[in-house]
Amino acid sequence: MTEKPMLYALSTCIWCKKMKTLLDAMDVDYEHKYVDLLEGAERDAAVAEIKKHNPSCSYPTLIFNSQCVVGYDEEAVKKLLGK
Amino acid sequence: MSEMPEVSQNEVDKLFARLDAEARAGGYLLNPDTEFTKDLVRGLLINEKRYGYWACPCRLADGVKEKDLDMICPCDYRDPDLSDFGTCYCALYVSPDVAAGKRKLTTIPERRPAPDKRAQKPAQQGWTLPAKLPYPVWRCKVCGYLAARENPPEICPVCKVKKDRFERFL
């Protein structure tokens, strides 16, 4: 079973919002986490996971198959997801 | 999960109008995409209610003001990002060419140092003062405004950030 793409986002970030809109429009089955709404260990775990792929820990970060797209980059998202 | 504070449309419209007027007065421009910009303003108001200050809506706030100081809007990175990319990181502020539609607005790389490289750099290093100065010189870390006086101003007269965004320059 392949894992679903995971979007790490912030609830107040408009580029993250655009990223969600793009993924929805592409009909992608993905999971997402609003890191600013997480607390304690859950938040630390999310930040640690993002850091592995994106050392600057910026948002949105989309992770799929151990690769990632940082920021709202439509072309890179399509490439990552093979669409 | 933490609760999301409520922000009314009226609060958003009021702050939007204020920021728009202040930006123009200081020679800056808000993103002309009003819907986009008002969403960001809503983010600022949510962060004001959550943290007590305008943490950048597009960056993860720590919640401890000292650690977030560099990314309180307008952030320390706004002006260099406007120069290099025509927009600040979250795209609340844009350059005249982006505002006029002559340059495309895109998402830009994060200039803020990564969390583990964010340690306070020593503010005063390697300077040689020419002579004794009658006053210290304070520098606004957001817009570069310099003020030679005993203490920094309460509010930067150019970009309107508070006193705590000033550093001793000379």
Brief write-up:
The complex is a heterodimer of chains A (83) and B (170). By secondary structure, chain A is α+β, with helices and mostly antiparallel strands. Chain A is 41% helix and 19% strand.
Based on Cα principal axes, name the global outline of chain A. Answer: globular
Principal-axes shape call of chain B: globular
Structural class of chain A: alpha+beta
The ordered string of helix (H) and strand (E) elements of chain B is: HEHHHEHEEE
Please state roughly what percent of the residues of chain B sit in beta strands, choosing from under 5%, 5-15%, 15-25%, 25-35%, 35-45% or over 45%. Answer: 5-15%
Spatial order of strands in the largest sheet of chain B = 4-3-5
Poorly predicted runs of chain A are none
Helix-strand makeup class of chain B: alpha+beta
Mean pLDDT across all amino acids of chain A = 95
Largest interface, per-chain counts? A-B, 23 and 24 residues
Oligomer: heterodimer
Under the CATH scheme, the architecture of chain A is: 3-Layer(aba) Sandwich
Domains of chain A (count): 1
Strand count, sense and barrel status of the largest sheet of chain B are: 3 strands, antiparallel
Spatial strand arrangement across the major sheet of chain A: 2-1-3-4
- The structural domain count of chain B equals 2
**Tell me, what is the CATH class of the largest domain in chain B?**
Alpha Beta
Your description of this structure?
- The complex is a heterodimer of chains A (83) and B (170).
- In chain A, strand 1 (6-9), helix 1 and strand 2 (31-34) form a beta-alpha-beta unit.
- With 83 residues, chain A is α+β, with helices and mostly antiparallel strands.
- Chain A has one domain (6-81): Glutaredoxin, CATH 3.40.30.10.
- Chain A has a 4-stranded mixed sheet with strand order 2-1-3-4, sandwiched between helices.
- The model of chain A has no long low-confidence stretch (mean pLDDT 95).
- Helix content of chain A is 41%, strand content 19%.
- Chain A contains 3 helices and 4 strands.
- Chain B has 170 residues and is of the alpha+beta class.
- Chain B folds into 2 domains: 9-109, Ferredoxin thioredoxin reductase catalytic beta subunit (Ferredoxin Thioredoxin Reductase, Alpha-Beta Complex); 125-170, Rubrerythrin, domain 2.
- In chain B, 30% of the residues lie in helices and 8% in strands.
- In chain B, strands 4-3-5 form a 3-stranded antiparallel sheet, with no helix packed on it. In chain B, strands 1-2 form a two-stranded antiparallel ribbon.
- In chain B, helix 1 crosses helix 2.
- The longest helix of chain B is centred in the N-terminal third of the chain and has 18 residues, at 34-51.
- Chain B is globular, with a radius of gyration of 17 Å.
- Chains A and B meet through helix 1 of A and helix 2 of B.
